[in-house]
């Protein structure tokens, strides 16, 4: 992996209280499938390029057009095992029963030390892990305006079969029940309004 080891490697940390308003912060943005997490984070990054959006490490192979360190950090199973053993991941999971994905700790902590605001766009399982591994983070739940709108967005996306859509919707129903676990809940209705609210919360 070469330089990848220095980017995704572990680093010592000292858990403490949540980062205060006057300091750079780590913001976990989570929510159910099709709620628009990627679109919202993409707009935030475009408006505020100083934001550091975490890049996940994965054991799967690159797809055409994907470059190392941009879409993902592509690592071997052995390297992923080392990151776990050295506490080098804030969270990780097996996805679709095959490949592993995780959030490298070191780039996040280096970005915070450099005074940058950090965004982790992750699912509920990952958010729960980060609550334990990095308790200073602020957790923001993106919610749909309504259940019907969430179903419409998933169907309109057109990237899943009907069976896959139903499976995702069952997961989404469970995820919506967890909104009370988060520090803030932002309803993602109109994109610009959602981004404006997040900018206020992050004090950008």
Automatic annotation (TrEMBL):
Domain Guanylate kinase-like: 24-203
Segments for region (Disordered): 1-22
Top-level class of the enzyme under EC nomenclature: transferase
Ribonucleoprotein is among the record's keywords: no
Subcellular locations according to the entry: Cytoplasm
This enzyme's EC code(s): 2.7.4.8
Family: Belongs to the guanylate kinase family.
Protein name: Guanylate kinase
Organism: Propionibacterium acidifaciens F0233
Gene for this chain: gmk
């Amino acid at each position: 992996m070469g330089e990848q080891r220095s980017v995704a490697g572990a680093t010592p940390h000292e858990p403490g209280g949540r980062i205060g308003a006057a300091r750079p912060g780590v913001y976990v943005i989570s929510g159910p499938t099709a709620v628009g997490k990627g679109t919202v984070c993409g707009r935030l990054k475009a408006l505020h390029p100083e934001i550091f959006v975490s890049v996940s490490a994965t054991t799967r192979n690159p797809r055409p057009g994907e470059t190392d360190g941009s879409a993902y950090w592509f690592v071997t199973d052995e390297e992923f095992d080392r990151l776990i053993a050295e506490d080098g991941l804030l969270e990780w999971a097996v996805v679709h029963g095959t490949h592993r994905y995780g959030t490298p700790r070191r780039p996040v902590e280096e970005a915070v030390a450099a005074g940058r605001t950090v965004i982790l766009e992750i699912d509920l399982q990952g958010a729960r892990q980060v609550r334990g591994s990095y308790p200073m983070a602020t957790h923001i739940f993106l919610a749909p305006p309504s259940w019907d709108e969430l179903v419409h967005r998933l169907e309109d996306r057109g990237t899943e079969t009907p069976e896959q859509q139903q499976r995702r919707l069952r997961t989404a129903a469970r995820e919506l029940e967890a909104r009370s676990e988060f520090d803030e809940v932002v309803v993602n209705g109109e994109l610009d309004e959602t981004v404006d609210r997040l900018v206020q919360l992050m004090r950008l």
